[in-house]
Design goal:
The complex is a heterodimer.
Chain A (H helix, E strand, L loop, with lengths): L5 H21 L1 E6 L2 H5 L2 H14 L5 E6 L11 E4 L6 E3 L4 H13 L8 E2 L9
Parallel strand pairs in A: 1-2
Antiparallel strand pairs in A: 1-3, 3-4, 4-5
Helix pairs in contact in A: 3-4
Chain B lengths: L4 E6 L2 H21 L6 E6 L11 E4 L3 E3 L7 H11 L10 H4 L30 H6 L4 H9 L2 H11 L11 H10 L6 E6 L8 H8 L1 H15 L3 E7 L3 H16 L15 E7 L8 H8 L23 E5 H13 L1 H5 L9 E8 L5 E6 L4 H8 L9 E6 L6 E2 L10 H6 L8 E6 L4 H15 L5 H18 L5 H17 L3 H6 L1 H9 L1 H9 L14 E3 L9 H5 L5 E2 L7 E2 L9 H5 L5 E3 L1
Parallel strand pairs in B: 1-2, 5-6, 5-8, 6-7, 9-13
Antiparallel strand pairs in B: 1-3, 3-4, 9-10, 11-12, 11-13, 14-17, 15-16
The chains are: A alpha+beta, B alpha/beta.
């Protein structure tokens, strides 16, 4: 991409902001915490298990993404699940098995999974 | 078919122990009885924190937070809140009470945490610059380059009251203005990412989760002080952070947010990464500069301060990762907004790496003025296994050991200094009754002695002497005179050492002598370690009335110190015993005592 001018940057921000928010209302998102801490606790295995399970179930409308540390070191690996019409939820201690459960219970059957929900640590000051 | 509402019931051990399970069942029953089984899901969660106010219940999607909920309240919550849509105010968490020490005007929130530095951590994909931009990224830079003069930027940062988060707490705006006041010419902006305290990982997590916020801040600082070149000094032990930084740098350059003529503003700035080899002293600013220049990382006396004579003798500003991550928000929301958060002298938030004997260890960000009790018991979920809190340690090897009587002290720079500790970079280690204080002091001294560069005598010799005395005490061979000598060395080290490492290295000893003298005296006079950590002071004995002669201890003993006939009481030969404690752990009949 060519270097941005001020106007380009503003346009890009508007575009990406809409995209960022649109995604939330149409498709589902699974976000895996992949800081050093999460990876050490097995976040990569969880990430792969979720993708494998989505493929196995032929689900294509769900985005699986990585992010940094969510701050819940006591429950790594952590995964946030955002499904339209359901509250966004952070799950802790998500091993490969729980990762599959997220796909089947939360994404497909639309109910929350017992014993793995963590509280959102803080309100968002950006939005 | 998705549910419309969700009742989250805390399933943490603390809540479980006070009828959390009963509450869960009662809520399920009430939901069913009111015909809501298809609309409301009752879910058990992991620990939600606030254990002192348990059991806690949260209703989604409204985000209502109820505390101290009893099984009898289930019916009311379902009838009032879910059916009628009215909040049950008597069960609500009282936010006013919790924010007694912390002023955040006009913002109402029930969480103890408030995220400025970590705003994007765990939200965006750190490898995608577009997501950072979508979350108002580089908007502050935009504003700075096109709407503000360098002096305006410095004024805004000064107005915010932001102070250095690396430990010493020097006002950031002032530091910038010193460098800006130097005659124009080559100046440098340096980010100190040489985080090395045992138990601290705030900077690593920030860089891994939101690298662009630091790049944006450095560019802003560069504009403010008139620097065209920046360095990030980061230790090579942080491979993932380095990888993400490199990726972020490449993306920012591609977009023209770094490099020549940024966004067509005429301002040029670029950043280079320099890897440190992991010497703790290189976190000290003058040693860090020496290391960037390619010399051995050793501190030099100040003044001249780096803002006057820094890298290659040019004016240089050095800011810590966390300090920088605050900058874009300050410029977007204004210094005034920022200055309303925190206490009178310490503004904004502080990120802590909460570790040690707490249930919920984690990376947390709280407004300045939050108390240790709120951090350890509300966010941290209390002490593991229900044990007693003994002490908290802030500031790593440069900080002090804080006893329980200060649990309710609002944390800010001044208060921590008053009780003999420092803010430090933000490691917060919690200790319980099983931790031996002289032994902990010894651990930290061991670290600083190892990491001392050896240039000045107070640090090099004083540290070693202190460590020797602590070793003696932990071995049960200490004397009262040793304590006096330690006090004298503390004084000499903190006053005469060349740099911050030596000046603060005795803090763990100083503060523990102040608050935990009884434990030192126990080691010296009674040759006793109440925590059972100092091996040479331990004696294991078998209670003959409790021992059934199962032989489990004799079988596990690696030094064959335990003898006895089958089904007969056993005995331990303390001459042979190596105090490994395995017999103590394995005995099912609690027949072995440790004293």
């Amino acid at each position: 991409m060519a270097k941005l001018t001020l106007n380009d940057l503003r346009k890009l921000r508007d575009e990406k902001q809409k995209e960022f928010e649109k995604r939330d209302s149409t498709g589902a998102k699974i976000v895996v915490g992949m800081g050093t801490c999460g990876i050490a606790a097995g976040a990569k295995e969880t990430f792969n298990a979720i993708i494998d399970e989505l493929n196995a179930k032929n689900i294509s409308h769900v985005q699986v993404r990585q992010t940094g540390c969510m701050g819940l070191c006591h429950s790594e690996p952590t995964v946030e699940v955002i499904v339209p019409d359901m509250p966004a939820v952070i799950y802790g201690n998500v091993n490969a098995e729980v990762g599959k459960q997220i796909v089947n219970d939360h994404i497909v059957n639309k109910y929350l999974i017992d014993n793995h929900i963590c509280d959102k640590p803080a309100m968002d000051i950006v939005r | 078919m998705a549910y419309k509402q969700y009742i989250l019931v805390c399933g943490g051990t603390a809540c479980e122990s006070i009828k959390g399970g009963e509450l869960f069942d009662a809520l399920k029953k009430a939901v069913k009885a009111n015909g809501l089984a298809n609309e409301v899901q009752v879910v058990r969660t992991g620990c939600l924190g606030f254990c002192e106010k348990g059991p806690v219940v949260k209703i989604l999607p409204q985000d209502t937070f109820y505390v101290e909920v009893k099984p009898e309240d289930a019916e009311v919550i379902v009838k009032e809140h879910l059916v009628e849509g009215r909040v049950v105010s008597r069960l609500l968490y009282d936010t006013k009470q919790s924010k007694a020490n912390v002023a955040i005007e006009g913002i109402d929130f029930y969480q103890k945490q408030f995220r400025i530095v970590l705003r994007n951590c765990g939200v965006i994909d750190p490898d995608k610059i577009d997501e950072y931009i979508a979350r108002d990224g580089y908007k502050a830079l935009e504003k700075v380059l096109f709407e503000m003069k360098p002096q305006d930027v410095i004024n805004e940062v000064s107005k915010s009251g932001l102070r250095g988060r690396g430990g010493a707490g020097f006002p950031t705006g002032k530091k910038w203005s010193f460098a800006a006041a130097q005659p124009a010419g080559q100046k440098y902006m340096v980010c100190n990412a040489d985080e090395g305290d045992p138990g601290a990982y705030m900077d690593r997590s920030t860089l891994e989760g939101d690298p662009h916020s630091v790049l944006e801040a450095m560019t802003i600082a560069g504009y403010a002080i008139g620097a065209s070149k920046g360095f990030i000094y980061i230790r090579a032990e942080y491979p993932l952070a380095i990888e993400r930084l490199e990726n972020a740098l490449a993306q920012a350059r591609e977009y023209g947010l770094l490099g020549d003529d940024i966004l067509g503003s005429g301002f040029s700035f670029d950043i280079e990464i320099r890897l440190g080899a992991g010497a703790f002293v290189c976190g000290e600013e003058t040693a860090l500069l020496a290391s960037i220049e390619g010399n051995r990382g050793m501190p030099r006396p100040r003044p001249p301060f780096p803002a006057v004579k820094g890298l290659w003798e040019r004016p240089t500003v050095i800011n810590n990762v966390e300090t920088l991550a605050n900058i874009p928000v300050i410029l977007l929301k204004g210094g005034l907004w920022f200055s309303k958060i925190g206490t009178a002298t310490s503004k904004g938030t502080k990120v802590f790496a909460l570790t040690g004997k707490v249930n919920n260890s984690g990376l947390i960000e709280v407004p300045m003025g939050t108390t240790l009790r709120e951090i350890i018991f509300d966010i941290g979920g209390g002490i593991r296994d229900g044990k007693a809190f003994k002490a908290a340690q802030t500031g790593g090897p440069s900080g002090g050991i804080i006893p329980p009587q200060f649990l309710d002290t609002p944390i800010d720079y001044e208060n921590l200094a008053k009780i003999g500790s420092i803010m430090g970079s933000g490691g917060l280690i919690v200790m319980d009754e099983d931790d031996c204080i002289p032994n902990i002091a010894k651990f930290y001294l061991d670290f600083t002695v190892d990491e001392s560069c050896g240039k000045c005598a107070p640090c090099r010799i004083g540290g070693r002497k202190l460590l020797n005395y602590l070793g003696k005490i932990c071995d049960g061979e200490g004397t009262h005179e040793d304590i006096e000598n330690m006090r004298a060395i503390n004084e000499a080290m903190s006053r005469a050492s060349l740099c911050g490492l030596g000046q603060t290295a005795s803090n763990p000893v100083q503060s523990s002598l102040l608050y935990f003298m009884d434990e030192y005296l126990e080691h010296i006079d009674d040759r006793r370690c109440r925590a059972g950590k100092c091996r040479n002071l331990l004696r294991y004995t078998i209670d003959k009335t409790k021992c059934v002669g199962c032989t489990a201890c004799a079988r596990i003993c690696p030094s064959n110190a335990i003898t006895g006939e089958r089904r007969q009481p056993h005995t331990i030969d303390n001459e042979v015993c190596i105090k490994c404690g395995q017999c103590y752990e394995i005995c099912k009949f609690h027949a072995i005592t440790r004293a």
